[in-house]
Amino acid sequence: MDKRVNVFLNSLSLQVVVALIVGSLLSNTFKYHAKMFIIVLMSFLVLVVPIPLFLFKPRWPLNALIPGIVACAFIRLFGVEYEIRGQEHINVRNGGVVLLNHQSAIDIVMLSRLLREFRNIVPVVKKELFYMLPFGIASYLVGVVFIDRKNTASAKDVMKREAVAITKDHLKLAIFPEGTRHDNDTLLPFKKGSFHVAIDSQSIIQPVIVSKYHFIDHKRKRFGRGRVIIKIMPEIPTKGMTKADVNELTDRCQQLMQTEFDALSAEAKQYCHN
């Protein structure tokens, strides 16, 4: 009986592998869904497997360093590579807020690539991700900050605590000011929470612009090969600013990031193939 089961499982595994290969060759839609699923699953696994090691130093951002290197190497096999510019603008001794544009679920790999440059950066994400066990536990152990977007008072309390951590631990909070991911050519209006945090802590804001993922077309279900250009901009100090400066600061950062996003996206397009 055991022998029959083994033969059946081996045969089933072979059929699945063949189906994946044939499906990828014949259908771009299948390839799109398969790539997205595998990349997200891989990102989860590389973070979850080392959980026992994270327990030696919980809430340490560099816990995610090795998993991030593995994730970037893996996604390169799918034809996606990252080019980082502006590393000279990074000051690891400064805590603050890092602003990023948000495009896709695979931004998780982009964040892991940035960890190698910043070393003290932690993402701020929606609280619901914490309950995706065991991924949520692994994320907590590498320092990810969870906020409840539906509870404004709770979110503000969390961000006030993180404003203290910015000063005390020199952390940089990676925040998507648009609030949700999209693949438009124009950035969505920025929410003001990240700017309040920076001013409350009298720290810096550092815009980081990620070129458009031309190699992914969510509407046509295409996932090809391409290069992602990430540009780290100079720090913007908020020392001396007050709540009255939030609107002006928000508009300034939005315009700066949109201009750079347009330029980087136009350049990256030549390296992308669907």
Please report the distance between the alpha carbons of the first and last residues: 47 Å
Radius of gyration: 20 Å
Please indicate the percent range of residues in DSSP E strands (runs of 2 or more).
15-25%
Number of strands: 10
> In CATH's first tier, which class applies?
Alpha Beta
Question: What is the mean predicted local confidence, pLDDT?
Answer: 88
User: Helical element count?
Assistant: 9
Biggest sheet: strands, sense, closure?
8 strands, mixed
The structure class reads alpha/beta
What percent of the residues sit in helical stretches (DSSP H or I)? Answer: 40-55%
Total discrete domains: 1
CATH architecture: 3-Layer(aba) Sandwich
Say what the CATH topology is.
Glycerol-3-phosphate (1)-acyltransferase
The low-confidence runs, each spanning 5 or more residues with pLDDT under 50, are none
Shape: globular
| SSE topology string | HHHHEEHEHEHEHEEEEEH
Enzyme class: transferase
EC number: 2.3.1.51
Domain Phospholipid/glycerol acyltransferase: 96-213
GO molecular function: 1-acylglycerol-3-phosphate O-acyltransferase activity
What order do the helices and strands come in, and which of them pair?
Elements: H1 2-26, H2 28-48, H3 51-54, H4 65-77, E1 80-85, E2 96-100, H5 107-118, E3 121-126, H6 135-141, E4 145-147, H7 152-169, E5 172-175, H8 193-200, E6 204-210, E7 216-217, E8 222-223, E9 226-232, E10 236-237, H9 246-268
Parallel strand pairs: 1-9, 2-5, 2-6, 3-4, 3-5
Antiparallel strand pairs: 6-9, 6-10, 7-8
Helix pairs in contact: 1-2, 2-4, 2-6, 4-5, 7-8
Protein name: 1-acyl-sn-glycerol-3-phosphate acyltransferase
Catalytic activity: a 1-acyl-sn-glycero-3-phosphate + an acyl-CoA = a 1,2-diacyl-sn-glycero-3-phosphate + CoA
EC number: 2.3.1.51
